[in-house]
């Protein structure tokens, strides 16, 4: 029997948008999203549904998060974010552990980027952060992306050390999506403290992937951008 929330999602499917999303999220053979299934539901609709279902049980969330539909997994994560923000300390711990235990289903960049710094970042903000370094060393590209993007929460609280250390770990990563995420976090850090970013760039420029560098320097002055790209 179809879960009622899955049934509602299926009633909202749009074949044209589904086809576009299949291409946008690289679901072809040998691409990073290979095998993913889309219904073609747009993000504002999913956000509306997340508010509607924000109080569902963890069992229902698990059903959504382990489903083959990308939008079901996306909805599950949006609900988890809402629940985490309202939860008491013990429930927040449970949610963070649940998130990490199900990381294999958080398997595209939009799923990672829309959830990890709302859950994993806040959870580890006042805790030992060793787990982030384990994630950064994971064979899973998505776990590595979770590690670096989660530090956006630290950056927003003027803490840069873990972003810098994780970025250094990931400079020789084989995946372009990790280079983009690393550059993105360095850029966000640089918006708050340009001197720290420039020091990192000067120390690591010879080994920085071109993509990471382009993302990292995006908010610098034109002359600085030109200087770093020419070097």
Short characterization:
This protein is an all-alpha fold and 231 residues long. Helices cover 67% and strands 0% of the residues. The mean pLDDT is 97.
Using the CA coordinates, give the radius of gyration.
19 Å
> Total strand count, please?
0
How helical, in percent, are the residues? 55-70%
How large is the share of residues in beta strands? under 5%
Estimate the mean pLDDT confidence: 97
| Mass-distribution shape | globular
Output the CATH topology of the largest domain.
Leucine-rich Repeat Variant
How would you spell out the order of helices and strands? HHHHHHHHHHHHHHHH
Name of the top-level CATH class of the largest domain: Mainly Alpha
Number of helices: 16
Distance between the termini: 60 Å
Overall number of domains:
2
Return the CATH architecture of the largest domain. Alpha Horseshoe
Q: Structural class, judged by helices and strands?
A: mainly alpha
Poorly predicted sequence stretches spanning 5 or more consecutive residues: none
The biggest sheet, with number of strands, parallel, antiparallel or mixed sense and barrel status, is: none
């Amino acid at each position: 029997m179809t879960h009622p929330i899955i049934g509602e999602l299926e009633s909202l499917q749009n074949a044209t948008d589904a086809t576009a999303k299949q291409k946008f999220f690289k679901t072809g053979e040998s691409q990073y999203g290979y095998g993913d299934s889309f219904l073609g539901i747009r993000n504002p609709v999913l956000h509306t549904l997340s508010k509607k279902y924000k109080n569902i049980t963890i069992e229902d969330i698990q059903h959504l998060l382990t489903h083959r539909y990308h939008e079901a997994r996306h909805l599950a994560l949006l609900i988890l974010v809402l629940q985490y923000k309202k939860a008491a300390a013990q429930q927040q711990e449970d949610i963070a552990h649940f998130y990490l235990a199900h990381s294999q289903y958080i398997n595209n960049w939009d799923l990672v980027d829309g959830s990890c710094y709302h859950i994993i970042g806040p959870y580890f903000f006042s805790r030992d952060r060793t787990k982030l370094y384990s994630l950064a060393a994971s064979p899973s590209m998505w776990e590595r992306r979770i590690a670096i993007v989660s530090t956006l929460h630290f950056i927003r609280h003027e803490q840069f050390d873990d972003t810098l250390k994780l970025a250094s770990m990931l400079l020789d990563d084989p995946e372009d999506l990790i280079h983009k995420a690393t550059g993105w976090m360095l850029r966000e850090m640089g918006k708050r403290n340009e001197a720290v970013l420039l020091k990192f760039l000067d120390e690591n420029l010879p080994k920085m992937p071109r993509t990471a560098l382009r993302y990292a320097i995006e908010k610098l002055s034109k002359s600085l951008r030109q200087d770093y790209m020419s070097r």
